[in-house]
């Protein structure tokens, strides 16, 4: 997960990229948020969206990876968070019960480029997206239209 934050209008976009065990993208989701006070809140919202997506996909075992060490650390603990992120972290903690096993893992920004770039693109285009099994859909379209339909 990752988020992009536009400081002038307090409008972030979060992007979640869900991969299967083989590493291929299964689902990609971009969400626009409004009235968000900080980039930390934007990152926390992206994380809660990732937990919701896992539940909606019916997954039992998940690893949620993000490049915000603060958010990942808050998700790994069971101590009540009293910061501005508290309510969002509570949502994440409640969503943990939707899985048999959930792991929150910090990754470097360099490992999270895809999610970050897609979040920035969603923010720039002001566009939400939800794509399921992108590669299969693209392959199906290529079979249907081997050449440009125009």
TrEMBL record:
The molecular function GO annotations come to: nucleic acid binding; RNA-DNA hybrid ribonuclease activity
The record's annotation in InterPro entries points to:
RNase_H-like_dom_plant (IPR044730), RNase_H-like_EbsB-rel (IPR052929), RNaseH-like_sf (IPR012337), RNaseH_domain (IPR002156), RNaseH_sf (IPR036397)
In what residue span(s) does the RNase H type-1 domain sit?
A: 1-122
Q: What is this protein called?
A: RNase H type-1 domain-containing protein
């Amino acid at each position: 997960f990752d988020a992009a934050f536009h400081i002038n209008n307090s409008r972030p976009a979060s992007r979640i990229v869900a991969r299967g065990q083989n590493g291929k993208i299964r689902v990609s989701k971009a969400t626009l948020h409004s009235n968000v006070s900080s980039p930390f809140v934007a990152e926390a919202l992206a994380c809660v969206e990732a937990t919701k997506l896992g539940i909606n996909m019916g997954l039992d075992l998940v690893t949620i990876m993000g490049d915000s060490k603060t958010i990942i650390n808050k998700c790994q603990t069971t101590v009540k968070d009293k910061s501005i992120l508290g309510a969002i972290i509570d949502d994440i903690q409640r969503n943990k019960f939707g899985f048999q096993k959930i792991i929150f893992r910090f990754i470097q920004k360099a490992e999270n480029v895809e999610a970050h770039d897609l979040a920035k693109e969603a923010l720039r285009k002001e566009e939400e997206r939800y794509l399921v099994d992108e590669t299969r859909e693209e392959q199906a379209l290529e079979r249907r239209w081997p050449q440009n339909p125009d």
